[in-house]
């Protein structure tokens, strides 16, 4: 399979290494220094594109891939206020896209554990809920896309929680998310339920970025020769 890499930073380079190890070829690498190469002719040489850029450019990158007829996997976060628009464009062009706040196989298992725990905790109003996420200092968005996914999944299951708030206070209606930035931290997410009697915590800690890159390549393999909008739950059959 020929893969176009849209974004060639640390994550792009790791994706390249894993893709090549799995027998794929990298047909195009786009970064800030060669944006003029992001053309229809060059992109359509690829069977699928993997996009890891930033919140400011991700939407345009995803839409360009869709309009050029190339299936796209996007791991950029911070642009999901336009996700529904991207899905509509994808449908209009009979395209293919898969966007995920986190491609790590372990994190996607963690998503499911979070949803199931939240369903249980919906019946126990004496517990408050809070979240903490820690990432490397180069991460541009806060809270992380993964934290937002975790928060929104919990809110969907717990009727007393109406919204999340960055660095907010714990109360009966709000899920506060604390965002911490430290050097060389790939990503840690902690969800804590507290009562006067006890605490219940679930934590996912990434040791490196390899899991994110591997998941992105697996996602690209999954959407190859498919049409529609997909998620990691489709890929992992959760």
Please give the structural blueprint.
Layout: E1 2-6, H1 10-21, E2 25-30, H2 40-43, E3 48-51, H3 58-67, E4 72-74, H4 83-92, E5 96-99, H5 105-121, E6 128-135, H6 145-157, E7 163-166, E8 174-181, E9 187-194, E10 199-206, H7 210-223, E11 228-230, H8 232-236
Parallel strand pairs: 1-2, 1-3, 3-4, 4-5, 5-11, 6-8, 7-8
Antiparallel strand pairs: 6-9, 9-10
Helix pairs in contact: 1-7, 3-4, 5-6
Walk me through what this model shows:
The strands form two sheets. Strands 2-1-3-4-5-11 form a six-stranded parallel beta sheet, with helices on both faces. Strands 7-8-6-9-10 form a five-stranded mixed beta sheet, with helices on one face. β3 (about 50), α3 (about 60-65) and β4 form a beta-alpha-beta unit. The radius of gyration is 19 Å and the shape is elongated. It folds into two domains: about 1-100 and about 210-235, Rossmann fold, CATH 3.40.50; about 105-205, Dihydrodipicolinate Reductase, domain 2. The mean pLDDT is about 95. It is of the alpha/beta class and about 240 residues long. About 35% of the residues lie in helices and about 25% in strands.
Short description:
Helices cover 36% and strands 26% of the residues. It contains 8 helices and 11 strands.
**In which range does the helix fraction lie?**
25-40%
CATH architecture of the largest domain: 3-Layer(aba) Sandwich
Oligomer: single chain
* Overall mean pLDDT: 94
Features:
238 residues; alpha/beta; Rossmann fold; Dihydrodipicolinate Reductase, domain 2; six-stranded parallel sheet; five-stranded mixed sheet; 11 strands; elongated
